[in-house]
Amino acid sequence: MTNLTLYPARLIRTLWTANPEANAVLVDGDRIVAVGDRDSLAQWGEAQIDERFADKVLIPGFVEAHCHTMAGGIWGQPYVGFYDRTDPKGQRWEGCQSVEAVLERLVEAEAALEDPTEPLLAWGLDPIYFPGERLNRHHLDSVSASRPMFVFHASGHLATVNTAMLEQQEIGPDHPAEGVPKDDDGYPLGELQEPAAMALARPGFLGILRKLKEVGAMWDFGYIARNAGVTTAADLGTVPEQEWDLWAAEAAHEDYPVRIMMAARGHVGDDAALAQRVIERMGNGSERMRFGIVKLILDGSIQGYTARLRAPGYLPQADVENGLWVIPPEAMNDTVAAFHDAGLTVHCHTNGDEALDVFLDAVEAALAKTPRWDHRHTSQHCQLTHPDQFRRMASLGVSGNLFTNHLWYWGDQHRTMTVGEDRAAAMNACRTALDSGVQLAFHSDAPITPLGPLHTMWCAVNRVTPSGHVLGPDERITPSEALEAATLGAAFQLKLDHEIGSIEPGKKADFTVLDDDPLSVDPMAIRDIGVWGTVLAGKAHRSSR
Amino acid sequence: MGHGACRQGASVLSLIGGRIPVTVLGGYLGAGKTTIVARLLETTTQRIAVLINDFGEVNIDADRIARRSDDVIELTNGCVCCALVDGFIETLERIRAWESPPEHLVIEPSGVADAMAVGQYAHLPGFRLAGVCVAVDVGAPELLEDPKIGPTVRHQIERADLILATKTDLLEPGARESQTEIIRMLTPAPIIRVVNGAVASDVLLGVQTQAVRIDSGLFDEPLPHPPVRSAAVQWRATDRPALERWITMAPASVLRAKGFVPTEPGLGIDVDLVGRRTHVAEIVDVSGADEGTFVVLELAPEDEPDGLSQAVREWLAARPPRSA
Q1: Which residue does chain B place closest to A178, by CA atoms?
Q2: Which of A91, A97, A441, B124 is most buried as measured by Cβ atoms within 10 A of its Cβ?
Q3: What is the tens place of the pLDDT at every residue in A253-278?
Q4: Which CATH class is domain B3-13+206-317?
Q5: A418: phi then psi, degrees, rounded to nearest 5
Q6: CB A54: neighbour CB atoms within 10 A?
Q7: Given an 8 Å threshold on Cβ–Cβ distance, is B85 in contact with A199?
Q8: Cβ <8 Å between A209 and B86
Q9: CATH architecture of B18-203
Q10: Is B324 exposed, middle or buried (0-12, 13-18, 19+ CB in 10 A)?
Q11: Which fold would CATH assign to domain A75-211?
């Protein structure tokens, strides 16, 4: 009696060096038994044949090693961002490429609300794309003068509200809080800057934050991942520890469509105690919920001018001395050591090159004190990394998870507004990373940019900006290298490459099912390849796109 | 008006406000924040809740504080940034909902936090900002020039309402002066020298109008470091603009000034000055008192061993006269 299933495919890219291409894969339950030429698999005996992927291309399930599960729940409100985006149901939302388009979208959303007292929330606005005109309360008042409104910006640092929200929450001319800019008459403009000010608009800010914790939000994240072809996703430190059990309960459902690696957020309490709790969790992981990595956030963002940069820093027009530290540099050695010594993997947010120096110093100190092989500590974002830093990363065994989506979403802004042409051309330098011997992956940081490994690969391969500029053509990598980074490379950083990341006997039957071959289409067409869906542990999950 | 009436006025005031005053105590690692909080908890008679958000170095110290107070909350998973901000707001809401809310909340943010930005959470409903104090290790002026954290420390100092200059006892007088002067070039905020964490609680928390002896007007605070003087005056003000103009003219040595000044029947002005910060708000007065009490706290002037400096006395004398 056999439970074997044979999946013939037009092409299988295995990422298994010895057998890189195949046309059939044999699966037993949740495991791969064999992969190769269809006829050769007959040696395993009788198998049920499933032809549904016969004209498809199978690759190892995509691994997104840096995103945030709020990418699902954020769709609890309408989207007003600049670029097209697809929601968990698979509905495509056109980008709002002008203030008028934003307002039109809000009018539609307003009309759809039945309860006149329910606040209208929206997300995704990025004023960096509207340099001439800044959304204020008057714009929003034209949508509704009576219903409180709250438009959350893409950066997560700002929101714009209407007059009804200001009045309901008593945010008036006398309001003493910072981050509430006023017009010439002293009345709030409607923009609320930074979380303390956004929190003043309680039904808005807290309303959005609380929707992220709903069960539906957890499933919506799974659907977003499935639709993008992602079979394993790491939440990098944004799900609080007290909510892990809620996520684990949902992920335990047989139909939950993605594996989640839940990173713990370090430096928010007693690090040594947290390390022990994570180790306990590792022993109780499940098929779709894993633990074992720790996220640290050391600096801010480049487009927000809060990343810590080496000299010469930001362009003069930015008028900032440097960015912000989120963890004091002096505290980094102890913090990294607490997790390093416990045997865990540290994933450190380092957007700027100066921040990366501090992280690498801390890793080097930890290694000197407690030598450890195969730690897989990883620099996250790693965007402005210099060749000397890539060489040092290789020496220290530090991986790089680069934020290649920035090349598209903010590439032109980096050329003209943040770091200038030369350093923008060197951002997310995948070629230098690989040539230096740095183990490589790249990510979306969803919901900061849309979850979508094909797009992320496309950025690394083409380095094209929306204006058509190629940012640092010498830093482009091949589609084959990009595919490895998006699968096996990311799995390595999560210490899961013995289970996932390639189509290889004994590994989990996790596949991404594509309409076309990312290694033979025109490189500029990689992001347009259709995603049929995924196979997760032998179970098919059809995309709703 | 006697002592009793003043007490009543003060309690009515806190009832009207109903908001928990919040002091943020910022400063870089090693500046002595935790020692100051520990000393405050030792000496104050108020019920204080402390939120500690400085991780890494502070946890051992936090244990030390926790033994002294049931109301120390470590902000585990309540980091005052990005996605975890929800936890911080929830913590504040929980404190607000306590059956017996604290009389004061002290937040000790991370060593790299912009203390003033953290202070903005005190504008949430149910709280009010009672000042942003930043501790600076005067013995470590090199921090200000450090390429990595110099800008962070300078920014903290520049935005503070009050500066607590710590570890001054470890320095020779000459070095103490010159290094205090470096801070003074960054900010017009009053600078208070602090030894072993001792700061008058009125400086950190704000003037307690209930506790002030109102008859004499002038008296010494019975505290070892640093000497501060306070004075209370009773008056009924003119209109709000005149009061606002006057309060902004407070001499730089004034650490704090606080009071409720009736204007017309049923109305009054609440004045709160913390170093450079002034907050003036018109509120409903249900006390019916004819006059209000206004208390000034000043660093003890070296040339006036017995009382307030001449500048402050002149400033008080120039307050907007009682309305007709």
Answers
A1: B120
A2: A441
A3: 999 999 999 999 998 878 999 999 99
A4: alpha beta
A5: -110, -60
A6: 13
A7: yes
A8: yes
A9: 3-Layer(aba) Sandwich (3.40)
A10: exposed
A11: Diaminopimelate Epimerase; Chain A, domain 1 (3.10.310)
